[in-house]
Every structure is written in C-alpha cells, then in structure tokens.
Amino acid sequence: MGAVPQFALEDLERLAPDQSSLTAARKLLKPAKWPLLAHDDEFLWSQHQGSGSTPYLTVLAASDQGYKCTCPSRKFPCKHVLALGWLAAESPELFSPGGEHPQWILDWLSRRRPKAAAPDDDPDGAGSKANAPRVSIRAATAAATASDEKSGPASQERSKASRERNRRAREESIDAGLVEFDRWLDDQLRSGLARLAAQPGDGLRVIARRLNDAKAQGLAVRIESLASQLSSMPSERRLATLATALGEFHLLVQSYRRRDLLDDALRADARRALGWTTTRDELEADPSTERIAGVWSVLAVRDEVQADRLRRFETWIVSHRPGTAEPRVAVIVDYVPVAAGGATTSPYTTGDVFEGELLFHPSAVPLRAVATSAGLQPIDAAPDLRAALGDQGLEAALERCDSTFARLPWLDYVPVRVADVELTQSLADGSHWLRDRADGTAVPLATDAADRSLRPLEGVPLERAFGLWDGQQFELCLAETHLGRWSRP
Amino acid sequence: MTAARGEGTAEDRAPKKEIDEERVPSGRGGRLLPDAGAWTRTLTLGTERAPLEPPVDLARALGAASERWMPAALALTAQVKRFTRAAAPELRVGAPLPAPHHPPLGPRARRLLRRACERGADAALVGAIWRALDRTGRSLHPFDLHDLDGLFGHDFARADPLVAAWLDRTSVRRTSHGDRSTPAADDADLDGDDPLWSMLGPAERAERLAAERRRDSAGARLRLARGLSSEPAATRERLVRALRSGLGPDDAAFLESLATDRSSKVRDAALELLAQIPGTARNSEMVDDLVARIEPVRGTPSLGRKSLRLRCPERLSTVGQRVTWALSTFMCVPFDLLCARLERDPFELARAARPDPVLQTLLLALDSLWPSHRHDDGAEGKSLDDVLPLARRDLVLALAVGRRDSALFDSQLLRRLLDPSRLDGLPDALLLTEVLGQLPGAADDLRFVRALVDSRALSDALDAAAQDREQDVPRLFGELLASIALLVPTEDRAALRARLSRLPVDLRNSALERLALLEAIETDPGTDLPAPSAPSR
C-alpha cells in the first residue's frame, strides 16, 4: 500500500461546481465527522456522518478525479467529495490504508466510465468551465473563518431568534396552505370525484404544488404519489382509492390543525407527516429521545421514486436482544436524488448485520430511527433471525396491527412478524394469500398475477416471516423456511 | 369504529368496481356513515348534482362543523376500511417445485451468482455457469430461480429438472393461475392466455417475446402467430422483428406466410429475417445476388484476380446506405457458401490480403464503396483506415452469426483467422473474444483459450489499456477481460489473475468477479435441505 493519493487544492477549485460548494466543504473538515477515511494507491474513500440517517459513502479517484457520493445533493461533485479531497491535500495522516475495496466501490467501478478530457484542456480556452467564474479555496476559507468569528453568544442568540421567526412564518404558511387544501377538497366534493379519478394527474398536482409552495412538502409528496398511483391503476378501481386517500388526507390535516390538543408523540407525527423534519443533532440533543443500542439485522430494503425526484430507501431492521425485551423493529429512511442514477442502491442488503445505537423519532408508533453520529458498524455475525421474528400467529399479529393503526391512523403500514404461515392461492381468482397453518387465518398478499417472485414459496411452509400490513394487504418481505431464507427480490 | 374481522363473504373479493361494492359499513357505523349507494352516487356526481343529507349521528358529532361533514365521512370510511379485513375465499396450497436433484449452492455462491446476473448475463456467462454447476454437481437454489429467470435456455432446462419445472410453471406460454392438472387449464395454455400480454405495450411485448424465444423459440413463435393479424401494422412489424432472437430454419414457414402481409413494413421485416436463414429461397436469392455483384477488377494486372469489386445496387445513393447494405448482406451469407458459389478456394480468394486474408478480401470488396480514396485519399474525409477496424469486426461477426455452430469453428479458414498468434492489439483481441463467445466449439477448446491468454496480442492490449485510458477503451477492455475470465480453464485462473493484478481495478473488476463466481460454484460445499417442519402451534 503506497502513500495517500495527492490532491492539489487547485484541483479542487477546478472540480468545484461553485463557490458555495467549496465553502460548504470547508466546514466539513473536522475529523470527528468522518468515521472512516481510507485510501489505496488509486482511491480515497470515506464515510461522513451527515444529516442523513446513515453515513454518506464517498469515493474519489486520484487518476481522473472521478467520484461518487451517496448523499442526496444535486451538486456534482457535492461538498463531501470536495471535503474528502481537501482532507487528503491538507491532512493525509488522517487516512488509513483501506485494504480490499468495499462492495459499494466495486459496484461503482463496474458501472463508471472514465471522465472525458476536461474543458480546461481545450487549447482555445473556450470550454465552458474556463469561462465560468473562478472558485477559490482562499475565499472558502475566509468565509468559514468569518462564520466561525460570528459564532459568539450574541450571534447564537440572533440565530436562535431568526430560526424562531422562520418557524413561525412556516407555521403560518402551512396553515394557509391547509385552508387552501380544504377549499380544494370541498370543490372536488361539490363537483364530484369522477373527473378527478379519470384525470388524476392534473387535478392532484395543482394542489400538490400549492402545498409545496406553502412549505407543507410532506402532504404535497403524498398527494403527488397518489396521482402516480391512480394513473397506473385500472380506471374502475380509481374512485375507491381516491376517496380513501382523500379521507386520510383530511384526517391528517384536521389532526395537524388541532395539534395543540394532541399528545406530544402524535403531534410530532402530524408535524412530520406535513413536512417538518427533525435532524439527527436535534434528536441527539433531546434527552427524551428513545435510544436503543444493540445488534440489528436487515429484514427488508424497499425503495420507491417519489414525485419530488428523490429515491426513498426504507431499510427495515430488527434488533437482537436475547433474554431481554421483545425484539424491536425499526425503519431507516434514506433519500437519494434520482439524478444520481437508476442504479443507485441502498447501502444495506437483506441479511446484513450491524451493531450500533439508534435514535427513534418521537412518535405514537416509534418505528423511524436514525443511527447516532457513531454510525452502524457492519459485523461479521449470523444471529438467529428466527428468534427475532418471534412465534406469534397471524391472528395475534393482526390484532397488534389494529392497535397500532388506532394509535397512528395515517400510518402507511405496520411491520408484522409472524410464524407458521404458508402461501396459498384463491381457487376463485388465483390471487395469493398468506394463511396461518395452525388456525387458517388468511390475508391477501400485495402481489399480482404477473409477479413470479413468490412462486418458489408455493408448497413451502414459512416457519417465520416478515412483512408489511397496510390494513388491506400483506407485503411479504422475508421468510425463513426449511430451504433457507427467501427475501423479496 | 373498528369492525370485526372476517365479516363479509367471498363475493367481497370480487374486483372492486365502485364505492358501493366496498364494505362501507353503514349498518355497523350506526348513523355515522351514509348509505353506501347514495354515498357513491354523491361522491361520483358531486353534491351539486346529487345532494345528500349528513347522517344524524355524524352531524351531531361534528356539531358546528357539520357543514363539512363529507370530508369527515370520507375519513371515517377510510378508517373503517383499514380495520376491516376481507374474508378469505376458498384457498389451495400450490404444489412445491421439485427438490433439486443436487445439493443447491450455498450462500456465498448464491450471492455472487445473483450479483453477476443483476448486471446482465450474456450467453457466455450463462454457459460458463452451467458448465461449472455440471462439473461440481451443484444445483441452483430454488429461491434464486426468479432472480435468474432471464438466463434459462433449453440447455439449462434439459440439464436441471428444477429449472425445467420452473420454466413450465412460470413461462409466458403456460402462465395460468388455475390448477395445472385440469383439461381446462391445458386448453387455456393452448389459447396462449397470458393475462399480462394484452396489457403490455408493443415494446414490452417485443422484449417479452424475445426473452421467451431464448427459452422456447417454437412456443414464442406460436404465441406470436395466434394474435398477430389483429395487431396494428407497426406493432406487427415490431413483434416480427423480435423473432430475430433464436432465429432458425423452423421459423421459415411462418415468415414465408408473412411475405403476403397487408403491410409492406411487415413483409420487409419477414423477408429480412428469411434472408438470414440458410436454405430458404430468400437466402438463396441473396447469395445469387451477392455472387453476381462481386466482380474481378479489370485493368489491374498486378493484382490479377485477387482484386475484387462489390457492385452495389444503383438505388443506394449514399455511402452510408451502401455500407449498411453491404454489411447486412454479408451478414446473411455464410462465407463458406459464398466461396463455393464463387468457385474459389477461400485462400485463393484471400491470398493478397494482409494481415488477415478473409477479412482483407472482403474489405477489398468493401473498399470499392469508397471509390475516391484510392485516387484522392481523404477526399470524403474518410479513408479505408478509418473504417477498417469497424468493418473487420462487423464482417467477422457476420461470419460467426451466420453460422453459429461448431462446424464453422472447425473450418480451417476460421481457425487460421482466429489464430491468437496472428492477432494484433486490442481491436483484434476484442474481436476474437466476441467470436469465441458465439462459438461453443471455440470456448471448449482449451488449447485455443490458453493460446489467447498467453498471446502477445493480449499482453500488448493489457499494456495499452494500463497506459491509455481514453474514452471507451477501458470499458471495452473490461468486457474483453470478463469474457476471457469465463473461458480460462480452472488450472489457468491463477495465471490470469496474476496478469490482471497490474491493471487498474476498474478494468479488472468484472473479470475478477466472474473468476470468483466460477470458483465459488466449483468449490461450493452445497446446502443440505432438511425436511419441512410441521406447524409448531
């Protein structure tokens, strides 16, 4: 293993998309925020504990300054890439020899194409980059220093007051947006839902845009997703789905409007559903945050592209706490811009095992969690997943789902761990159902006739299973069988 | 608000068409929710055209806010639906897939296999996987069949009863959710009743058809033939062109029947495919036409009969059209047949060509497409050197594609053509591996593959790629190395790995992954499958 690949600060200036990126990168140079800084002869790679629930993975190639980062930034390269190069230029001693490349780097390498010659190589100097305003390390450093100087007590007070003003302004904006939503919903009911069901895209996206402008992004994304969902379903099912969804939106809006009457946890749920976010730092600073440390196994990884062009990854994990309380299920949510490429994958794979502490968002049903700044560390272990999946029957599991939905009515779905079930088919229409082998309780599976992924499970007893229940259908994600583990492709 | 579970009947599971078929529990909700029929009508038409009074209890509960009772009723209805579970219809447990006849692969090999196939597996990779499984007596794991679905061809199905059962159960032609053992189900198969087929767009159907052709070319052709006449012309053309995958003599009769199609585009597509099937009248016509168009160039005594000229159809006015025509024509004509029809020995035909007699001869013919370059080099901004690499590659591939069997590989001419010692640098190495990937006889010839690994061409190419990483070369070179990795005999893998080690990681990564996959399969300990458990509760 040779020395750390060298980056000149001038290279970073050339690479940076704008001055603000460089300034932002300058603020990331504190080593404490980098759980991993590694190198070999060709690459630098790192983990940076950003605002996402999992550390951002960043790699930078020495030969052609090719890069990859899992953060959701729409700037290319992002501040993490620039900061990684900056650290290598100024503090190479922070990097340790990396050994074998992690799989995510190998995946990237298998897809990447080397960068073409930079416009700066244009002998005429006519390349677009050559004409772009210059960005400067010196200016970024000066800006960061000025920012540090302004961080005295008085400045902090001013910042706090400013944040409070912004919060109030956003509250007012959201309240105004919700009034507009009420008016829109009344209009739809007055003129009938038939037209909206027939052409969901136009009607729903108009109100979604207004809610987005009113800073109620959470509700806006739900409405945009509904538009996409309706557009892809047969027309005869649209009206029922639309009516159900509008009812849930109304419930959410009314709950938010009466948030002062709700308990703290449900109020936090309503705020989050409307679009308010809680950062990891805020969770860490809050003494009431629920923390659970332990060993976690990945049960399922789901992803969907949202209407706001972000790919949302849900990683469902379960804790192993033998001899203590019941295993705990949590979901880690990450976002990656679609612009980062369709091949972008979750950092997690079903069956991975990690160790670390999770911080749970306050909620009536605390499921969503983020890792602490220390991150989740992969470990080479194979804990007994069957024990973590429990041994309750389907009926008992669904009873618990009901109580969960009763606590948080707009929850999309509830994680379900169940034992001794089997895959069955309806004699009437061929639809797939999950049936308890002991008492015959059955629920429809979220699948269609064309989905062949379940076929290998036909006739195979599912000794333990994990899935998601939305009150109507069960999405089977993982099963332990005598043939081994099955997981949804 | 929470309804009891299990209420309702099997009819509740019928496709939901309107709100009134939902289980809106006006009875269970007392007077909180409106009557289902009136509710649906009002929701559909709106309160202006179908006004509705609020239920008494709901209005009372809402109090002053009762003017907006409809959104509240919507929310209540949604919650009731969430807490109401559908009654199960009569259910059956499907028959399990047959047990693998060998121990299935273990976790490591399964993971590598799925990963390799996620990135797209070509015929060469599938063949290598199959041979590795065969050598080591391992079977695919039943749970991986779905992920690996696109890989299976006839050979795989013949070799592995599990795969055969999977294909039988899931292939487009036989997809049906009913009981497989009933005569009615078999009739449905004969009708080709694929529930998805009619819902797919032309592009998706063409893709699906092409994939099925790789598994079951006759079945896919039958499916196409059944509903083709009712499709629009553009769709018919697209679907017919999908037959290119797995094209063979058995398709000739069907394609000839399309030669009278009402659409000229469909007719052209059918004729193009027919021309690619040796032995058909259309193919013979093309050979006749081509033979007539290859003429000795007169007035060049120094070259004698070695110099040939290709006379293109006069209707082709541009160079691009002529090149396209020439390549597509050569693609349809087996070279051996061409030589026979020209009554020339291939070596005689190719004698003056350098460095590669066959290609050079054909290129000399192709050369006549650029009449200007001989007299005024670069007059059209394009010299023979510019098109040489591409043309060589396309023409050799045409030979390989035209007759994809071991007999072609055994021909002395092609063996000389593909002699690794004659290869020159990266383009030739690329070309060689592409041809090797298409000729099963070549891939099985270990002497040949060893010669390639040891060849100076590969060594030069490795050096060049390590030094020069411009544009497309690394990507192509990575593919080349990945192809070689599949061909190398087990005992030579360490040598190849050593030679790859000096390359940048992004060039060697794919090849190393394939080596690791094959090694994992060949050294896999297998998985013992215990008996299924009885219910524990």
Number of strands of chain B: 3
Beta-strand portion of chain A reads 15-25%
Number of strands of chain A: 17
Largest interface: A-B, 83 and 86 residues
Compute the separation of the termini of chain A in Å. 38 Å
Spans of chain B of 5+ residues with little confidence (pLDDT < 50)? 1-29, 172-193, 299-305, 349-361, 363-388, 397-409
Can you give the mean pLDDT of chain B? 68
The total domain count of chain A is 4
Summing up helix and strand content along with how strands pair, one would put the structural category of chain A as alpha+beta
Alpha-carbon Rg of chain B, integer: 32 Å
Shape of chain A: globular
| Multimerization status | heterodimer
Mean pLDDT of chain A: 85
Organism (chain B): Rohdeia mirabilis
Region (Disordered) (chain B): 1-35, 173-196
Pfam families (chain B): DUF5691 (PF18944)
Protein name (chain B): HEAT repeat protein
Name the features.
heterodimer; A: 489 residues; alpha+beta; OB fold (Dihydrolipoamide Acetyltransferase, E2P); 6-stranded antiparallel β-sheet; globular; B: 537 residues; mainly alpha; 3 domains; two-stranded antiparallel sheet; 29 helices; 56% helix; extended; disordered N terminus
What does the model show?
Chain A has 489 residues and is an alpha+beta fold. In chain A, 38% of the residues lie in helices and 23% in strands. Chain A contains 15 helices and 17 strands. The longest helix of chain A is centred in the middle third of the chain and has 39 residues, at 153-191. With 537 residues, chain B is mainly alpha-helical. Chain B has three domains: 10-82, no CATH class; 188-275; 294-374 and 382-522. In chain B, 56% of the residues lie in helices and 1% in strands. Chain B contains 29 helices and three strands. Chain B has helices at residues 36-45, 56-62, 69-82, 107-118, 123-136, 154-159, 161-170, 183-190, 202-215, 217-227, 233-241, 252-258, 264-275, 281-293, 319-332, 335-342, 346-350, 357-367, 371-375, 384-402, 406-410, 412-417, 425-438, 440-444, 446-454, 456-467, 473-487, 493-500, 505-522, and strands at 91-92, 294-296, 308-310. A two-stranded antiparallel sheet of chain B has the order 2-3. The radius of gyration of chain B is 32 Å and the shape is extended. The chains are: A alpha+beta (489), B mainly alpha (537). Chains A and B meet through α4, α7, α11, α15 and β12 of A and α1, α3, β1, α7 and α27 of B. β12 of chain A pairs antiparallel with β1 (91-92) of chain B. Chain B: Residues 8-25 have a biased composition (Basic and acidic residues). Chain B: InterPro entries: DUF5691. Chain B: Pfam families: DUF5691. Chain B: Residues 1-35, 173-196 are annotated as: Disordered.
